[in-house]
Write a structure and sequence with these properties.
The protein has 15 helices and 14 strands. The chain is an alpha+beta fold and about 400 residues long. The strands form 6 sheets. The protein has a 3-stranded antiparallel β-sheet with strand order 1-2-5, covered by helices on one side. Strands 13-12-14 form a 3-stranded antiparallel β-sheet.
């Protein structure tokens, strides 16, 4: 095997007059770049101590060639730390295009240019420059073939998405959409407002939950959304050690003040937008603590909280990472878990037709039996309320009806 073209020049096989150190020792690795026919037509990846080589060898058997076959390979050399998933796609597409060109017009085998010259070298040179500078390339090869390559960034997988999560957009989604987008996505976007949970969005959009979840996961993958918990005045929040960065960052304090300020009433002449200063913001965040819900916090600091949007105040702290949600979990004792309730303990009612009485009690028993499946200490109140489509007050009422249930905050 030999190297016909290399970009940059002398980077793999240096010339006799070159003083450049090659990226790797080609003779010791040539059998992996141009392997036996059994290993052709597949992506081959291997590493040196400092670099990763991606190649896709192609073997074209034909009696028209001097050796009854023509074998070639195009390889990309990356730094070892560079994510290579998107470059693997580029390698496969380049190999496929060059194979097609060779089968159509002997584009490679009939090229008589000297090494590192000619149209093939120019193609490699333009491709390297475009991918490094613009992450995409469009190169016309002949009248009927054009090379179109684009490097798509590889992101980590999105976090797990549950029905009780609340998506909040980090970009203006309406400016990114067009009529050709997925129909479910177009129905979902108007309801992503930082208030509605995933399950509420599926109901408001009148779309299948699985499709809605897949659409939101797609937006999460590309960083267009982040996930919050369901806001309620009965929820508990507490500061983390990261609050120290907020205390020291004056710009973040000003950003928070603008974010939580109430909008100006355009119908009231001379009305001004009340903005809380940074010192007061720090005091309010420091006053949040375990055992105190948002309602109690709001009443205690009513003079200041009346001037701001409390939901945005909490959301800002969660987004920046210096507030965390204290979730509630319910655990049923062994005696009450999945027990059968005695019909004699039911509340006596006025005489009514027996069919309606039994139907009502059966429905209550069914609701409580469904609730008991969540009382193992692994399901937070947000999850239970979302799955059963009830609020926290109704949930507490059902827990009292079950019996001895412990509520744990953590």
């Amino acid at each position: 095997p030999k190297v016909l073209h290399q970009v940059p020049a002398d980077s793999i096989v240096p010339s006799a007059t070159s003083t450049q150190i090659p990226l790797f020792h080609f003779p010791s690795l040539s059998s992996y770049i141009i392997p036996r026919p059994e290993f052709c037509s597949r992506l081959i990846t291997f590493c040196t101590p400092t670099h990763r080589i991606l190649s896709h060898p192609v073997c074209l058997p034909s009696p028209s060639y001097p050796r009854n076959a023509y074998t070639f390979s195009i390889a990309l050399v990356l730094n070892l730390s560079t994510p290579f998933a998107s470059y693997a796609t580029v390698t496969l597409k380049l190999a496929s295009l060059l194979r097609t060109l060779e089968e159509q017009s002997r584009f490679l085998s009939r090229d008589t240019s000297a090494p590192n010259t000619g149209k093939i070298y120019a193609l490699c040179e333009i491709l390297l420059e475009d991918l490094n500078n613009y992450c995409e390339s469009m190169i016309p090869i002949d009248d009927s073939n054009t090379l179109n390559i684009k490097l798509f960034p590889t992101y980590p997988p999105p976090p797990p998405l549950y029905p009780y999560h609340v998506p909040l957009s980090t970009v203006r989604l309406d400016s990114l959409t067009d009529p050709n987008w997925d129909l479910t996505m177009l129905r979902v976007l108007p309801h992503i407002d930082g208030i509605n949970s995933v399950k509420q969005i599926s109901l408001l959009a009148d779309a299948d939950y699985k499709l809605v979840r897949k659409a939101i996961e797609h937006l999460l993958y590309y960083g267009c959304l982040l996930l919050l918990d369901i806001f309620s005045f009965s929820a508990i929040y507490a500061p983390t050690a990261e609050l120290a960065s907020f205390v020291e960052d004056v710009e973040m304090q000003a950003e928070c003040a603008r974010y939580v300020a109430l909008p100006v009433d355009a119908h009231v002449e001379g009305s001004k937008r009340d903005v809380i200063d940074g010192f007061q913001m720090v005091e309010l965040y420091l006053s949040l603590k375990q055992g105190q819900n948002v309602k109690a916090f709001y009443i205690e600091h009513a003079e200041k909280t009346n001037k701001m949007d409390v939901r945005r105040f909490i959301t800002f702290g969660v987004i920046k990472g210096f507030l965390y949600r204290v979730h509630k979990y319910a655990i049923a004792t062994c005696q009450t878990s999945r027990r059968k309730r005695d019909p004699k303990t039911r509340v006596k009612q006025k005489k009514t037709p027996s069919i309606s009485v039994e139907a009502g009690t059966d429905e209550v028993d069914s609701d409580l039996a469904e609730l008991e499946t969540f009382l193992d200490g692994t399901h937070c109140f947000d999850e239970i309320c979302t799955e059963l489509m009830i609020n926290e007050q109704e949930l507490m009422g059902r827990l009292k009806a079950i019996g001895d249930v412990q509520i744990i905050c953590r």
